[in-house]
Every structure is written in C-alpha cells, then in structure tokens.
Design brief:
Blueprint lengths: L11 H6 L10 E8 L5 E4 L2 E8 H14 L3 E7 L18 H12 L4 E6 L13 E2 L4 E2 L1 H18 L3 E4 L6 H11 L12 E2 L6 H7 L19 H13 L4 E4 L5 H10 L4 E5 L1 H13 L4 H15 L3 E4 L2 H8 L4
Parallel strand pairs: 1-3, 1-4, 1-12, 4-5, 5-8, 9-10, 10-11, 11-12
Antiparallel strand pairs: 2-3, 6-7
Helix pairs in contact: 3-4, 4-5, 7-8, 8-10
C-alpha cells in the first residue's frame, strides 16, 4: 500500500482548503523614498515603477496605497548631496527631511503604519552607515550607536509607529531600546535588520537612495553572505536585546536562513524583497520570458513558506491589485 497524495490535489476547492501558506495584503510593507522639494516624482531607471518623491507627491502615493488596502510603509529619506556631511546631521534634526515627512504623513493618514529606516548612509557625504573611524577607515561602532540613539528620538518625537535600524552595528537594539524607554517611548516597537548581508542584490537601491559608499564597501559591518550559523546568532542576539520583529535581508537567495531563524525564534519574522530581486523580475517581465504575475506570487509564497510573516517589497502595489482581483 502506498499513500495517495493526489487525493488532496484533484479538486480545486480541496487544494485551497488544505493549502499550508497564503499571501494577504496585510503581509505587505511598501518602501517609499522622500526627497526635499515640491512636485518631484522621479522614476529610477534600474527599478521601473519605483520613484523618488517630494512630500506632496508622497502624500498622494500614500492615499493611493491605502485605497488598495496596504497598511504599512517603510520610509527612507534621500538627501541632496550639498546637504550631506560626515555625520548625517539632517537625520539628527527635528526639522530634517525624515522628521518633517513622518509628521506630515501621520497628520494626514493617522491609520497608516509608518516605519522609519534608521541609518546614516543616505545622509552622509561618505555614504557609510555612521561615523567613520579615521584609523580603520570603517564605521566606528560606539560613536554610531550614540548618534543612532539621537536619530531614534527624532523619529519617535515625530510620531513614527515603528523604527527599523539598518546599519548592522553591534549593540544597536539595546542602545535604541534604552534611549527610547528613558524618554517615555517604551511602547514604540523596533524591527531589527537582524540578519543583513553584504549583498550585491542591493545595487538598484543605491540608485534610488543615492547611498553608495564613496570608498570601500560595507563588509566590515554587514554580514558575510557565506555564513549561515552567524546569521542565526545575529538574529537571536537582537531578540535578546529587545527587538520586537526580526528581519532577513535580502530574501530570495537566503530562504535557508529565513527558515533557520523561524525554527529558533517565536518573534515575527520579516523579509526584505530587495531592489535587485525586484529588478530581475521586472527585467524578465519586460523580456517576456516569464508569466510575471504567477512567478511573482510564487516568489511571495516561498517567503511565507520559509517562515516570514511580513514582506517588505517594491511589488506591494502590484500584489495588492492582484489579491483584490484588479488589473
């Protein structure tokens, strides 16, 4: 006697009823990029359908995505080169780009869940994620923790709903948690970029965020993509320090890591479906070599099957329309 697995596959309704994983609009977080100015909506050539937007255009975009049912955004500030400096001063200013944008978003859309990326690469003239140690020419961990705490309080005072520190500094979660709690923001959650690899999949993102390092790379603070055990340790350490949500970035080439973390932690797990992954699917769609919507949906289900609860993706608007049955 052998088991007939096909019994549960022969009927459409039964296949749906017994499906282990599904995708919901509620799973999606949409990354958005705000710039200074007015009337700006600049499409990024390497990421068709992704834009740098001034705040007035960003507000229109948020109204559109809320009408689609998307409930959360991940907000990045993209600063003009002439306003960048060695320590990312604009990110530490209550009247800086990101703080003003958070306030406007929350004033107009109080129900929109606004997550802020907390980093310095978009604000520094050297393009690295914090204060540079002149001796090592790499990011100084302690000095960067200090200004990261200041940046977190800027975001908190502006009314952000969740903070997502992306710089991969050792001790960042405990540092932010202590600073936030001390100032009365003990209920503000932190989504940690707990396992973020030094990946070549980020290339197009650096076009939209204007955040490429002016020299060197980020391998001294982002993770070696060859390491799986260390990836698990990174996430478990951030959980111990007080992270509320863990994240793996990138997603598609790291499903083994996603699965391993999901097996060892009960915290909600997010994946970042990054710019290179997005650009590859868009290129394949343009070339006509795949059934784009089917491959896109299959990719998202792979993230869920591996253990992700939330998905940060540039495909969010397309997916929301697909899930609502719109074209």
């Amino acid at each position: 006697m052998f088991k007939r697995f096909r019994r549960l596959r022969l009927n459409d309704n039964l296949r749906i009823m017994t499906r282990e994983n599904s995708l919901s609009i509620n799973d999606l977080i949409y990354p958005l990029f705000v710039v200074n100015g007015k009337g700006i909506k600049k499409e990024i050539s390497s990421m068709p359908g992704v834009f740098q937007m001034s705040l007035d255009e960003l507000l229109k975009e948020c109204e559109s995505i809320m009408n689609l049912g998307i409930k959360a955004i991940l907000l990045f500030g993209v600063l003009e080169k002439e306003k960048k400096d060695s320590c990312g001063s604009d990110a530490l200013d209550d009247e800086g780009l990101i703080a003003r944008s958070i306030r406007e978003l929350k004033a107009k859309f109080p129900k929109l869940f606004v997550i802020s990326d907390l980093c310095f690469c978009e604000y520094t003239d050297h393009g690295h994620c914090g204060i540079i140690d002149v001796k090592t020419k790499s990011v100084h961990n302690g000095a960067t923790l200090e200004i990261s705490a200041k940046q977190a309080l800027v975001h908190a005072r502006a009314g952000v709903d969740m903070i997502a520190p992306s710089g991969m500094m050792d001790g960042i979660i405990s540092t932010l948690r202590e600073a936030l709690d001390k100032e009365g923001f003990e209920n503000l959650p932190i989504m940690s970029y707990s396992t973020k690899f030094a990946s070549s999949y980020y290339g197009p993102f650096r076009d939209v965020a204007d955040s490429a390092p002016s020299y060197g790379d980020r391998k001294s603070y982002q993770m070696d993509f060859a390491n799986g055990k260390e990836a698990l340790e990174e996430s478990l350490e951030d959980e111990a320090q007080g992270a509320d949500i863990l994240m793996v970035k990138p997603a598609l080439a790291y499903l083994d890591v996603v699965k391993e973390i999901a097996l060892h932690s009960n915290l909600p797990l997010c994946v970042y479906n990054v710019s290179g992954e997005y650009a590859m699917l868009k290129a394949a769609q343009s070339a006509g070599v795949i059934d784009y919507e089917k491959v896109l949906y299959e990719t998202m289900i792979a993230f869920k099957r591996a253990g992700a609860k939330l998905i940060i993706t540039y495909h969010a608007k397309e997916l929301a329309k697909m899930l609502k049955g719109e074209k």
